[in-house]
Amino acid sequence: MARAMFEYTKTVLKKVSFDANLFCKEVQKAIQRLLPYELEELKVFIKSLIQQNPELNQCLIYLKP
Fold first, then answer.
1. Which of 59, 61, 62, 63 could hold 24 in an S-S bridge, CB 3.0 to 4.6 Å?
2. Which residues of 24-55 are buried (b: 16+ CB within 10 A; e: fewer)?
3. Does the pLDDT of residue 7 top 90, yes or no?
4. Reduced to 3 states, what is the DSSP secondary structure of residue 32?
5. pLDDT tens-digit profile of 34-64?
6. What is the pTM of this model?
7. How far apart are the first and last CA of the chain?
8. Is the distance from CB of 35 to CB of 4 less than 8 angstroms?
């Protein structure tokens, strides 16, 4: 079940990647919902999205290094 939440989160983030504010809100929701190892995978996913949409870079502050 947890894996389904991770996949759902990735889908939502792709869909809202056009708006940095929405994207940041969804990142914050994902941090509350996902398991610690999924957050590591999410960081990698978000970094790949940032390559395509540099304005999303501001949302990295929510993901601890």
1. 59
2. bebbeebeeebeeebeeebeebbeebbeeeee
3. yes
4. helix
5. 998 999 999 999 999 999 999 999 998 988 7
6. 0.88
7. 26
8. no
Q: What is the pLDDT of residue 65?
A: 64
**Measured between alpha carbons, how far is 38 from 20 in angstroms, rounded to an integer?**
22
> Are the beta carbons of 49 and 17 closer than 8 angstroms?
yes
Long-range contacts, stretch 28-31, CB < 8 angstroms, 24+ apart: 28/62, 31/62, 31/63
Show the CA angle centred on residue 19, arms to residues 2 and 9, nearest 5°: 5
Q: Does residue 26 sit in helix, strand or coil?
A: helix
* 20 pLDDT tier (thresholds 50, 70, 90): very high
